[in-house]
Amino acid sequence: MKEAIITDTLGVFEETTLVTDDVIGVFPIYGPLPHPEEGSAEVQQEPKITGYRIAVGVPPGLYRPKWDFETESWTEALTPEEIEEIIKPQPQEATEAEQKIAALEIALAVQTEQTFTALDAVATVFEQLLSLQDQFAAMSPGGGEPTA
Hints:
The longest helix is centred in the C-terminal third of the chain and has 44 residues, at 96-139. The chain has helices at 80-87, 96-139, and strands at 2-7, 13-19, 25-30, 49-55, 65-68, 73-76. Helix content is 35%, strand content 23%.
């Protein structure tokens, strides 16, 4: 089995289908014939072509394959502008979850900075207390020596 392409009546890709490996070529797809009404004279109607089944490989690099019935080959159905629109990078908006994560990361950074500032202040106060303790000990009788 191999892949074949189903196209519209203009030869533009619509979907894929499977065919046996020995099938090669272009085959019309006919729509259903309308049922003649009861009591009317039967008139033979030509079946209407609704598309084609094309069992010819599509070359790589086509964004929207189109069968060219004159050259019997695949061509590109899209314009260069349409292709450019497809291949240009699309800006991605952050999802709600990503926005929440970013907000939490900012809040964490602010909280961390505030914590370090508070720890610096505590360390400064502690150093000042140690300095005052040394000064007080130096002023007490005995020069800060423990008394018995």
